[in-house]
Design goal:
This protein is an alpha+beta fold. It is built from 7 helices and 3 strands, in the order ααββαβαααα. β1 and β2 form a beta hairpin. 28% of the residues are buried.
Length: 149
């Protein structure tokens, strides 16, 4: 998966929004396959008009958890938005995820001006879910640190 910097560079070359949408859809197509068993109510992101599922895996040191995300959607453009969210957050320490606001990145990409309000709300729900998973991982790490004392 590429980085946000890669995506910004791609968007600079693609000056037509139709081409940019196609690129976002391609990003979604490049997401790794999502396990059918993970398409369940626990992993479903509430607040999205499309079906969206996100799972997180924690790795790294117990006191500095790193989260990696997997996800899928039944809508191609939304799948691309999932890929963008993962560019921003996946593989990062939980502390960084909680501290990172995606809004400035979306503005820089121009996406905030070109998504329907419904898609923007759905994307915000995905980000809220990702940041919530990071907060849970941080709470678990601080609980285990306290228990280890």
């Amino acid at each position: 998966m590429g980085t946000v910097e890669d995506l910004l560079a791609d968007f600079e070359v693609l000056d037509d929004w139709e081409d940019r949408y196609r690129h976002v859809i391609e990003l979604g197509r490049d997401l790794p396959p999502f396990d059918d068993a993970s398409r369940n109510a626990v992993n479903k992101v509430q607040g999205c008009a499309s079906q969206v599922w996100i799972t997180s895996e924690t790795s790294g040191l117990p006191d500095d958890p790193v989260l990696n995300f997997s996800g899928d959607s039944d809508a191609l453009i939304v799948k691309g938005l999932i890929a963008i969210a993962f560019m921003i957050y996946s593989g990062k320490p939980a502390r960084d995820i909680v501290a990172t606001d995606a809004a400035p990145i979306l503005r820089q990409l121009g996406l905030s001006d070109h998504l329907t309000p419904q898609r923007s709300n759905g994307f915000a729900s995905m980000i809220a879910r990702i940041r919530s998973d990071a907060r849970v991982a941080l709470q678990a790490s601080s609980s285990s640190a306290i228990a280890g004392r």
